[in-house]
């Protein structure tokens, strides 16, 4: 099954749904720029590294000077090369790791995520990276005007979970690594007087049962108390009023997904309660938002109503859109209407190309990148209008956001097995008629009534079995809730 491709990203500025335009509607399109064709990382980021006031692009061992990204510099030596054998017996060697240039599954082991922050306080932004789960977090110190390769420091020996982040979890104005370590959720903080030393990990859970490849993680205020909580696929940890050593955070259990990606707490429908936005299976199908209800269960935990935005079948999305491998998600106001929209896409060859032992379903379908416009409807309903940004890039494990040209609109950077790409958000005023022609058509108005919930059926990556190990083909596993 291949994804349903729609016209390039579009939207209009409406006074209200169903009403006349208060001003000329606006179409949003994204101008694509390719930075690198080799596979160095599953993520990329923006950040000002040379103190010129303009965001630069960071991907793997490189940074590219903004705003045009034509001058490339090395953070560390791009020493990795890969050699592949072709069916005719010949071989070829290329820079980087197995990816779109190769013919098998592989990973950029030491670099999946990049974050930009001045960690040593010298006025120059540094780069923090995480790699494949269970590998270290590295801090690369910006050498400033001296130039040359950046000094690397291991600040956390193991970063687990497939969507770790770097954000100010505890409200002290400084970011922490939020991840799984030693089998527990928690956060790692530096000694800000000595940030290159090993960072202290503070667990917020007990039991040590969450394995390194656990999918799904987010940070947000779930209960409106002003403190950030930690979301994961099976619930959320409530941050206490006082954080004390050895005291775990209260776990609110709720099944959100078998295993997704970045998760978000956001008031989707405008009722004042934080809802949850998540992909369902990063190596399968599905995307959903969970509406927080005012009713609570016997343990005082809020209850939720699931709304499946997209699943395996076109008929499960109002616009017929479906694609697999949603392994990176961001939430940002793309069109400036005051509501946050979803940016996501297909993770290109997340587990390799079709035909490899653990390839995800529909692995060779077009690597699409979308934004889904949030529209609040009368009566409390919502719609997520899909807008195609590109069909030959997709996502990796991280989506980077920034404003590369100072126009106030969020731009996107992608790093994955196809390389690295910048997408500049451009807008132009059009007539109402042109705007209407550009809108995607509703094909299945009753999609939400017909679709399956996360517990009903999710198609996952095939698991290694004796048959797959011997090369025999197998069907994707269909998993039903008990």
Topology:
Elements: E1 26-36, E2 45-47, E3 56-59, E4 62-64, E5 72-74, E6 81-85, E7 91-95, E8 113-117, E9 126-130, E10 135-141, E11 151-167, E12 176-181, E13 184-189, E14 200-203, E15 217-220, E16 229-232, E17 235-238, E18 250-253, E19 262-266, E20 275-279, E21 287-296, E22 302-310, E23 329-332, E24 341-345, E25 369-376, E26 382-390, E27 399-402, E28 411-416, E29 419-429, H1 432-438, H2 447-450, E30 458-460, H3 466-469, E31 477-479
Parallel strand pairs: 15-19
Antiparallel strand pairs: 1-29, 2-3, 3-4, 4-5, 6-7, 8-9, 9-10, 10-11, 11-12, 12-13, 13-14, 15-16, 16-17, 17-18, 19-20, 20-21, 21-22, 23-24, 24-25, 25-26, 27-28, 28-29, 30-31
Please name the defining characteristics of this protein.
single chain; 482 residues; mainly beta; eight-stranded mixed β-sheet; seven-stranded antiparallel β-sheet; 3 helices; 31 strands; globular
Provide an overview of this structure.
By secondary structure, this protein is mostly beta strands. It is 3% helix and 38% strand. The protein has helices at 432-438, 447-450, 466-469; strands at 26-36, 45-47, 56-59, 62-64, 72-74, 81-85, 91-95, 113-117, 126-130, 135-141, 151-167, 176-181, 184-189, 200-203, 217-220, 229-232, 235-238, 250-253, 262-266, 275-279, 287-296, 302-310, 329-332, 341-345, 369-376, 382-390, 399-402, 411-416, 419-429, 458-460, 477-479. It has an 8-stranded mixed sheet with strand order 18-17-16-15-19-20-21-22, with no helix packed on it. 46% of the residues are buried. Mean pLDDT is 90; it is low at 1-21 and 464-482.
């Amino acid at each position: 099954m291949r994804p349903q491709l729609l016209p390039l990203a579009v939207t209009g500025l409406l006074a209200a749904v169903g009403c006349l335009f208060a001003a000329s509607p606006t179409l949003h399109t994204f101008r694509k720029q390719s930075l690198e064709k080799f596979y160095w990382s599953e993520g990329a980021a923006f950040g000002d590294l040379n103190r010129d006031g303009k965001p630069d692009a960071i991907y793997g061992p490189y940074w590219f000077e903004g705003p045009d990204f034509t001058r490339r510099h090395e953070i560390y030596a791009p020493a990795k090369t890969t050699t592949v054998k072709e069916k005719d017996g010949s071989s070829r060697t290329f820079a980087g790791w197995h990816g779109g240039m190769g013919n098998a599954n592989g990973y950029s082991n030491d670099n999946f995520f990049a974050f930009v922050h001045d960690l040593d306080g010298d006025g120059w932004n540094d780069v923090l990276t995480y790699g494949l789960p269970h590998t270290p977090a590295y801090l690369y110190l910006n050498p400033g005007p001296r130039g040359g390769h950046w000094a690397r420091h291991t600040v956390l020996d193991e970063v687990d979970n497939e969507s770790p982040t770097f954000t100010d979890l505890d409200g002290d104005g400084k970011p922490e690594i939020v991840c799984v370590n030693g089998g527990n959720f928690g956060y790692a903080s530096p000694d800000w007087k000595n940030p290159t030393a090993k960072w202290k990990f503070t667990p917020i859970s007990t039991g040590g049962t969450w394995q390194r490849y656990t999918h799904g993680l987010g940070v947000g205020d779930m209960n409106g108390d002003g403190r950030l909580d930690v979301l994961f696929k099976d619930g959320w940890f409530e941050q206490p009023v006082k954080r004390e050593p050895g005291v775990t955070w209260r776990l609110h259990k709720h099944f959100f997904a078998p295993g997704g990606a970045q998760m978000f707490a956001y008031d989707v429908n405008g009722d004042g309660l934080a809802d949850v936005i998540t992909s369902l299976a990063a190596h399968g199908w599905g995307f959903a938002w969970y509406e927080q209800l005012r009713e609570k269960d016997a343990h005082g935990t809020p209850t939720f109503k699931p709304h499946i935005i997209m699943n395996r079948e076109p008929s499960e999305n109002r616009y017929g859109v479906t694609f697999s491998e949603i392994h990176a998600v961001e939430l940002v106001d793309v069109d400036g209407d005051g509501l946050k929209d979803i940016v996501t896409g297909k993770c290109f060859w997340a587990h390799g190309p079709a035909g490899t032992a653990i390839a995800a379903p529909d692995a060779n379908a077009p690597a699409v990148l979308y934004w889904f416009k949030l529209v609040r409807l009368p009566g409390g309903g919502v719609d997520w209008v899909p807008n195609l940004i590109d069909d030959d890039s997709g996502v990796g494990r991280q989506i980077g956001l920034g404003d590369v040209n100072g126009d106030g609109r969020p731009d996107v950077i992608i790093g994955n097995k196809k390389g690295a790409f910048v997408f500049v958000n451009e807008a132009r005023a059009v007539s109402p008629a042109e705007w209407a022609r550009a809108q995607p058509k509703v094909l299945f108005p009753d999609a939400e009534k017909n679709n399956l919930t996360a517990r009903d059926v999710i198609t996952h990556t095939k698991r290694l079995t004796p048959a797959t190990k011997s090369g025999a083909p197998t069907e994707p596993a269909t998993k039903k809730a008990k």
